[in-house]
Amino acid sequence: MKIDIIIPCYNAEKWIEKSIDSALKQTYKNTQVVVIDNESQDGSFEVIKKLKKQNPEMIIGSAPNIYPYGWTEPVEKALSLCDGEYFTILGADAYIEPGYIAK
To answer: Which tens digit of pLDDT belongs to each residue from 29-57?
Structure first.
């Protein structure tokens, strides 16, 4: 069973690398990390693109920021890119333990 970890991001430059890293380090190996930037005004998307180069299996994209601080647009965009049976949403400023998905 494949699990998608969706990370919507808006102006989370300080936290996004640690958040993505925690998603990528899951002990349950059949996971896919999908990060969608919501037109951040800081360096978030540059951090995301750097991590994509290091982790080509990661899926990234962007979505229009119609409702600031809302997750609707980036989550809808991520869902259009996901192909897992289940998904979870992780805040760009949140981190999960390596065994989170396995549990």
So the answer is: 999 999 999 999 999 999 999 999 999 99
CA distance 13 to 83: 27
Torsion over CA of 48, 21, 18 and 72, rounded to 10 degrees? 60
Q: CA-CA distance, 71 to 93, in Å (whole number)?
A: 13
- Beta strands (DSSP E) in the chain are 3-9, 31-37, 59-62, 86-89
Compute the Cα dihedral for 24, 28, 34, 35 and give only its sign.
negative
Instruction: Check residue 69 and give its pLDDT.
Output: 72
pLDDT tens figures, 49-88: 999 999 999 999 999 988 777 789 999 999 999 999 999 9
- Tell me the one-letter amino acid at 52: K
Q: Using alpha carbons, select from 17, 19, 23, 70 the residue that is nearest to residue 43.
A: 17
- Tokens read off for 3: 């699990």
